[in-house]
């Protein structure tokens, strides 16, 4: 991340954000919306930290104008809302914000969010326009299921982190990151009535839901540049004991990258609210993983994941 623009009418809050980000990136400051928009035009930043409550032009309006501008899509906006209220969050999303956090801003959380946004921005900048559409589509599909969280991004970050801990080369770490972002893109073909159903799925619904791995593979296939991600997308629901889908692969037959994403995906789903289940506490979710090691998941990956939990939390990936 090279340049972050902090937009806040409070001088103390601006300086605090600047101090928190010192050493991580260059920081520019803007005291209000109009001057922020001017600065963005003159020298486009890589990320905008945007306060909601400002006189004259509030953060929502500033965000809308940023997103309506040229290259606005590619400029991530992290909104700083005053409370944890979901109304603020909904309004921020409506205005096009990419992420939000509540005041008071904590240093570790801000640093983690900026790092996450930086990696995503770097990825987007490296994509051609067809690829960008694919990643944007995957994020949009994921937001249907869980509007306020960043499931694909956390899966991507944690899978990439595990790949690094395993000493995997950059291409594999990159595939884990991209595969984490795209793993559920096939959900685009799963009706909302199934995706958002609060209760158990019947046999027909289950089959339809499971088809997301094949649909996802078909969406990605034409893009040769993403071919390394195909095994992740097809096989992230295989089980170590061979009772998974779509191919019922066993243990070491399961592509390694898919086995890694599978653990990260399961953990993230467990610790976040889903239409059919409330979130579990972290300890409980880790116990579920340990219990399923050797049955549902590769025991080596589970062991690594559990050991890396503190690091993953620091990264903002768990
Ligand atoms: Fe999936
Ligand atoms: Fe998932």
Written overview of the protein:
With 318 residues, the chain is an alpha/beta fold. The protein has two domains: 3-121, Response regulator (Rossmann fold); 128-315, Hypothetical protein af1432, CATH 1.10.3210. The protein has helices spanning 11-21, 33-42, 59-68, 86-94, 107-126, 129-145, 151-165, 170-182, 192-195, 203-210, 212-220, 230-235, 256-270, 282-292, 299-307, 309-315; strands at 3-7, 26-30, 47-51, 77-81, 99-102. It has a five-stranded parallel sheet with strand order 2-1-3-4-5, sandwiched between helices. 38% of the residues are buried. The model has no long low-confidence stretch (mean pLDDT 92). Bound molecules: fe (ii) ion (FE2) (2 copies). One fe (ii) ion binds at residues 183-184, 212, 236-237.
Provide the domain count: 2
State the helix count: 16
What's the CATH topology label of the largest domain?
Hypothetical protein af1432
Helix content: 40-55%
Identify every distinct bound molecule in the structure, by name, code or SMILES.
fe (ii) ion
The run of helices and strands is EHEHEHEHEHHHHHHHHHHHH
Number of strands: 5
General form: globular
Rg value: 20 Å
Name the CATH class of the largest domain: Mainly Alpha
How much strand?
5-15%
Largest sheet report? 5 strands, parallel
User: Average pLDDT value?
Assistant: 92
Q: What is the straight-line distance between the termini?
A: 21 Å
Strand order in the largest sheet = 2-1-3-4-5
CATH superfamily of the largest domain: Hypothetical protein af1432
Write the layout of secondary structure elements.
Blueprint: E1 3-7, H1 11-21, E2 26-30, H2 33-42, E3 47-51, H3 59-68, E4 77-81, H4 86-94, E5 99-102, H5 107-126, H6 129-145, H7 151-165, H8 170-182, H9 192-195, H10 203-210, H11 212-220, H12 230-235, H13 256-270, H14 282-292, H15 299-307, H16 309-315
Parallel strand pairs: 1-2, 1-3, 3-4, 4-5
Helix pairs in contact: 2-3, 7-8, 7-13, 8-13, 13-14, 14-15
